[in-house]
Amino acid sequence: GRDQTLSVEVPPGLPTVHGIEWLLREAIVNFITNAIKYTPEGGRITLRALVRGEVFRVEVEDNGIGIAADDVSRVFLDFVRVQRDDTSGGPVEGTGLGLAIVKRVIEAHGGRVDVISELHKGSTFIIELPL
User: Fold this and answer.
1) N-terminal to C-terminal alpha carbon distance within the chain
2) Dist CA 16 CA 103 (whole Å)
3) Would strands 5-9 and 44-52 be described as parallel, antiparallel, or unpaired?
4) 3-state secondary structure 25-87
5) pTM above 0.85, yes or no
6) How many C-beta neighbours within 10 Å does residue 106 have?
7) pLDDT tens digit string along 102-130?
8) pLDDT of 3-58, one tens digit each?
9) Which residues make beta-bridge pairs with 44?
């Protein structure tokens, strides 16, 4: 237990996105898992879904440790482990493939991924899918 707050902001009546359900679900879960890992105790994570024009957008926002400006453009690359310690103070284990796979899954669905982040202020990971 990290005593974090997860808020879900999903308006009623969202349109259906066409795709492979379990892959899209795994992509979103990956973003949430990362947010949990990099957000300190008492932190806040928000899952948001919205429609902008012809695009279905999912955002996972946290107020965690953030990503350095130089590294933001690299987080979705294969096998790139951006040097981030998790909130327990140690480096995070893993292959670095998680986010690269999310990017591939979303692009295979005709969409795109993005991240907005500031060191020590938090990150927002974004999935956009065509409607």
Assistant:
1) 37
2) 20
3) parallel
4) HHHHHHHHHHHHHCCCCCCEEEEEEEEECCEEEEEEEECCCCCCHHHHCCCCCCCCCCCCECC
5) yes
6) 24
7) 999 999 999 999 999 999 999 999 999 99
8) 899 999 999 999 999 999 999 999 999 999 999 988 999 999 999 999 999 999 99
9) 5
